[in-house]
Amino acid sequence: MREILIPLTFDDLPVKPPLVGRPKISEDLQQTAALLVGWDGSTRRLVSVSPTRVLHVASAPVKGIKNLLSAGDGTTQQLEDIKTSEVLIKASMYNTGNTWINVGVAAADNVGHPLDATEWVRFSINNLHSLHFWFEKKDDRISIIYTR
Fold this sequence. Notes:
Elements: E1 2-3, E2 24-25, H1 27-36, E3 37-39, E4 44-49, E5 55-57, E6 62-69, E7 75-78, E8 86-91, E9 99-103, E10 113-115, E11 120-124, E12 131-135, E13 141-147
Antiparallel strand pairs: 1-2, 3-4, 4-5, 6-13, 7-12, 8-11, 8-13, 9-10, 9-12
């Protein structure tokens, strides 16, 4: 049997009793654990299956919400340096213009992905600072929900 040298914890998968020391792990348990957990290059994610046999990946818990308000017609904004794994960006239902979103480079009119009122988009990114916004109209709003 192999030994677990560094026990890793997963918030979505509580282990009781907690792993301490160097517990031994059998081949079949190792294969089961490998099937339950996926690696996306930066974080481990718990993989789960629904009763209808539909495979889905459980998302990380929400870390926070940011709200941006346009300062004027044709203005740009960028978020601060916050590590994340996923973001959901939603345009307010009261927006009168489009908001353009780009990742890694500046957003502008017709550069990036447009969001009209009530539209939303979800991205997997490593840092909120990589998001760039261009607001067509003054007082338009965007909400950003991000994970840890």
